[in-house]
Design goal:
Length: 267
């Protein structure tokens, strides 16, 4: 489908990856509902940047951990846009709200992680299907390594939550296939202006050095615009045969073998 004149909702689009996605869609003529939880000023800044690109949109506040807030969010979108052509599930809580290892994570922290991802996505997709025409696009932003590995101990809550959301993508992909609605997940590598920037400065530099040194074959960290490009591709008419997939957009980092030294892998 041509994106010009379409309508999208991108959750967590006041900053970081969500902003990159909103601006990429806006640059293609999409009107975007910009969702935020706490930072209204950042959401307004995203809207201003969107308008500079020649598009427009609205700003909506909601706590995606609460199902009734998710429903209210979609009610507002329907009243403003009438329908949706693209839904991108990107929002997550701030790191301190869930960041704890498996031996110490509280049940409240666990619930925050699961509610913000799997439960919010379940509620959201059922809401969006009521206002999405056949041929629409649904994209979830995940972090697939968090569900496959166990070394980043403090990510356990979000790792489990993202894995559950990825599973929902597959089930919804089958459920909505007859309507031509595709449902996919994008798994970014390490991205500038994202969760990385919430970590201590020394840790950030270690991560950047590690990936520039070869762990990401393309030799750099990603940007929000990189993820926006991938979302735009999945929203195109040409991507109508791709559904139920978790697609790594990571500069090749998921191709590396943790069991071998980089010196061997780089030949």
């Amino acid at each position: 489908m041509s994106l010009d004149g379409k309508h999208a909702l991108v959750t967590g689009s006041s900053r970081g990856i969500g902003r990159g996605i909103a601006l990429k869609l806006g640059g293609k003529g999409v009107k975007v509902a910009i969702h935020y939880h706490k930072n209204e000023a950042a959401a307004k800044d995203t809207l201003a940047k969107l308008r500079k690109l020649g598009s427009d949109g609205i700003i909506i506040q909601a706590d995606i951990c609460r199902p009734e807030e998710v429903s209210r969010l979609f009610g507002r979108v329907k009243s403003e846009f009438g329908k949706l052509d693209v839904f991108v599930s990107n929002a997550r809580p701030d790191v301190p709200e869930f960041y704890q290892g498996p031996m110490n994570i509280t049940l409240d922290q666990w619930d925050t992680a699961l509610n913000s991802q799997a439960k919010a996505f379940l509620v959201a997709v059922r809401e969006v299907c009521r206002m999405m025409d056949d041929g629409g696009r649904i994209v979830a932003i995940t972090y697939a390594p968090g569900g496959r590995t166990g070394s980043w101990q403090s990510w356990v809550g979000m790792g489990a939550a993202k894995s559950a959301m990825e599973s929902l993508c597959r089930y919804f992909a089958v459920a909505l296939a007859k309507r031509g609605i595709t449902v996919n997940a994008i798994s970014p590598g390490w991205i500038e202006d994202s969760v990385l920037n919430t970590l201590p400065d020394a840790v950030q530099e270690m991560v950047r050095t590690w990936h520039r040194g070869g762990w990401t074959p393309m030799g750099r960290l990603g940007t929000p615009a990189d993820i926006g490009n991938a979302v735009a591709l999945l929203c195109s008419e040409e991507a109508g045969w791709i559904t139920g997939q978790v697609i790594a957009v990571d500069g090749g980092s998921s191709l590396m073998d943790a069991g071998l030294p980089l010196e061997i892998q780089r030949g």
